[in-house]
């Protein structure tokens, strides 16, 4: 397959790498060329319909993966109209430009309000924030324009991301960096997640992209449901650092205040769908062991 990936962030780059490892071609499109991009790249403002048509024509892809738009939930809450244009408007423009090509849209657990402990594909979306509302409108736009595409809702994605800095770090990477500097990590003890390793997201995305009998909606969450506080403590334990470096913090007094209490996904379809059957989604303990193979501080007491 030759695949156009719209969005060059953490997930988009992982999907591109997975495609290339599998023998496919990946072309990445985004507003700015990422510093570490090793794949063919096209400049694209996905909110510009004419630019979307040009990008699809230039890339000449067989299929598309959409992982675009602002992902900072707090920013989206303050800029709901821009969030809607960046997600729903761009998805509509890209779906029209695709002219029937198969598309996988990466969506989010934030389409739910967090009232239930977890949600599978049968649950009715009720966004409680602007990010979730924008993503839900994007889902609806895609499925209204394409009967061959799939929305893949993904829970909190994590993994090693050494090229990123500041606010763009995923929760795992941010925890590791702070803990290694012996800095306290403020982690909500009332915000539940089902974290999923970025490599598993990439593997499922490629399978869904290639699969011919994939349903229009799939959920992908990790097998473990835990709070950010508990997850950060697992990371500290793996690094051989004191659990006291992790400071339990109410979600309402953290940067996650606008997130739903239960940002958790489960699936009744993933294991029964031919394209994704047999893909093992790893739990957080295995993920932490893979990402932190050293598992303990060095002989001089300094975390490696």
From TrEMBL:
Pathway: Carbohydrate biosynthesis; dTDP-L-rhamnose biosynthesis. It comes from the Bacteria. Keywords: NADP, Oxidoreductase. Its EC number is 1.1.1.133. Pfam families: RmlD_sub_bind. Residues 1-289 form the RmlD-like substrate binding domain. Gene3D superfamilies: NAD(P)-binding Rossmann-like Domain. Belongs to the dTDP-4-dehydrorhamnose reductase family. Catalyzes the reduction of dTDP-6-deoxy-L-lyxo-4-hexulose to yield dTDP-L-rhamnose. This is dTDP-4-dehydrorhamnose reductase.
